[in-house]
Amino acid sequence: MAKYRIALLPGDGIGKDVMDAAEIVLQKINLDAEYVYGDIGWEFWKKEGNPLPDRTLELLRNSTCALFGAITSKPKEEAQKELAPELQGKGYEYFSPIVRLRQEFDLYVNLRPARAFKGNPLNYRDDIDLVIFRENTEGMYAGVEFYPLPQEVKDVLLKYSPKMKRFADVPNDEIAISTRIMTKKGCYRIVKAAFEYAKKHNRKSVTLVEKPNVLRETGGLMLRIAREIAKEYPEIEYREANVDAMAMWLVKNPQDYDVLVAENLFGDIISDLAAQLVGGLGFASSGNIGDNFAVFEPTHGSAPKYAGQYKVNPMAMLLAVKLMLDWLGEHGKAKRLENAIAEVIAEGKVKTYDMGGNSSTLDVARAVAERI
Ligand code: NAI
Ligand code: MG
After folding, report:
1. Residues whose beta carbon lies within 6 Å of some atom of ligand 1
2. Which end of the chain has less Cβ packing within 10 Å, N or C?
3. One domain for residues 195 and 270
4. Same domain, 186 and 269
5. Which among 140, 160, 143, 163 has a CA at the least distance from the CA of 152?
6. Residue 83 forms part of a structural domain
7. Index of the ligand 1 atom closest to the CA of residue 42
């Protein structure tokens, strides 16, 4: 029996293109692994009313970890219209499979590295090497929202929050509310993960990115917990930044930052900002990591206009494979893959359109595989 069982979930559009690229590289890496394919995405929504079928969840429960391509998703009304005729009117509701995976497997860390590879013409600067820990299961994306606002909820808010009084006279169907839910456990485990990572990888600093001066309760909770945890790591510099200021600093001095840790929404925003500093969507990889399972993915979507053309950059996906190898403890193989990626970029010969070249997705994957 193989040491690992790895689920490959190509999904939709260019998810399939970049998964083919990943497989070329995985073959060369020669991991002691069995690979299994799982169904996910738009196709399964249309045919079955479920973009993440139960059989896929079952397959994932029996796998070591998963590599995911991308999925297509559409607004509510459009999604309903595309359901197969026989499924119409049966009450199927579209949900994002990747959000569901994060919740289902409690993948609380969203690891988003942003490293500038030397020679990448898309770099903002060449000395950027950030690692972002974005909380992945709660915060502003917890999904507890109201519209129209139920009267009972309004009454409770009026009773407990003086600040709600300003909205007392707004009709319930003219007000929408999203809640930012943060738990002690949620704050603790994401900050702890960031510090543990910093310690293991000899990183200089960890910066908490929040807004506790305005979001006093949720931000305050995160801040107090982070300060406590920081005391356990005297060798690592602990810093704090407000999220708005951080957006500026990341443009002004991105090289001054190292590991960043943030709540779900703030982490989402700063990790996209950071991604653009080092080449954009073609280079942005992520790991959704829990205590017992993890899903690795490029952060881009299914880019329908490029689907099946093998034009897009597979680097984000190959960097996701690198994250996966590290998570498996295969650090030697991870390093070799990262070095091969760095070499191909530095040589500057084989590159996709976004980098000013015209190589195909698979050419890039082959060039990387040759250098492993
Ligand atoms: P997208 O990320 O699919 O593509 C936006 C544009 O970025 C593309 O048209 C292309 O110009 C560029 N791009 C993306 N990946 C690239 C790569 N590897 N190399 C070079 N260029 C690349 O975002 P978009 O167009 O907003 O969404 C398309 C679909 O993907 C939607 O249905 C959306 O809901 C879904 N989506 C899925 C995600 C996921 O599976 N995790 C994440 C984001 C969007
Ligand atoms: Mg995002």
Report:
1. 70-73, 98, 281-282, 300-303, 305, 312-313, 316, 354
2. N
3. yes
4. yes
5. 160
6. yes
7. 32
